[in-house]
Amino acid sequence: MSHFAEAVHILTTDGPAGRRGVTISAVCSVSDNPATMLVCLNRQHEFNHLFIENQVFALNTLSIGQQALSEAFSGKGELSQQDRFALGRWQTLQTGAPVLMDALASFDCRIIATHEVATHYVIYGKVTALNIGDPGRSLIYLNRSYRSAGD
Q1: What's the pTM value of the predicted model, to 2 decimals?
Q2: Separation CA 109–CA 139 (nearest Å)
Q3: Nearest of 59, 5, 50 to residue 30 by alpha carbon
Q4: Residue 24: count of CB within 10 angstroms of its CB
Q5: Does residue 76 surpass a pLDDT of 70?
Q6: Which pLDDT band, with edges at 50, 70 and 90, does 5 fall under?
Q7: 35-42 vs 56-61, strand pairing mode
Q8: CA-based diameter of the chain, in Å?
Q9: pLDDT band (50, 70, 90) for residue 136
């Protein structure tokens, strides 16, 4: 799977179950009417259930200049969730999930369905709000290293 190029995102949630953010790349658009996103999240991590419990997420698409943020939210450096969030500028739109103000795009979603497949949650989210940032080059992960795409 390391030969499959993917855009890099930070998936966030906040709500009664708690606040969490993780770096992910397994994402796709399902539909544009209604706007629906699909994300895959490793369910073997002990805190990823917070996304399911909160029933909301924000999908924040990263630019090439945000590699350090991607690494922090992937667990490199073993920062606490509070310290990870301190590295970025965040706001909320409709669901209360943290939206990265400097992301290329952020999709604020309410969870409409979940499935467990092998080691992952497959989560479908209806987009309730969208934040488009400044255009830039997308951060891509390929062959276990970061690259960029677009201008």
Answers
A1: 0.93
A2: 22
A3: 59
A4: 21
A5: yes
A6: low
A7: unpaired
A8: 40
A9: confident
Residue linked to tokens 């995102």 = 9
Tokens matching residue 28: 């796709």
DSSP letter for each residue of the chain = -TTS-EE-EEEEE-STT--EEEEE--EEEEEETTEEEEEEEETTSTTTHHHHHHTEEEEEEPBGGGHHHHHHHTTTT---HHHHHTTS-EE--SS---EETTSSEEEEEEEEEEEEETTEEEEEEEEEEEEE----PEEEEETTEEEEE--
b/e burial code for range 82-117 (CB count within 10 A of at least 16 → b): eebbeebebeebebebbbbebbbbbbbbbbeeeeee
Q: Which of 38, 37, 41, 36 is nearest to 23 (CA)?
A: 41
Q: Tokens 């179950």 correspond to what residue? A: 17
What the block records as the tokens of 118 is: 């092998």
Per the structure block, which two tokens stand in for 54? 């909160």
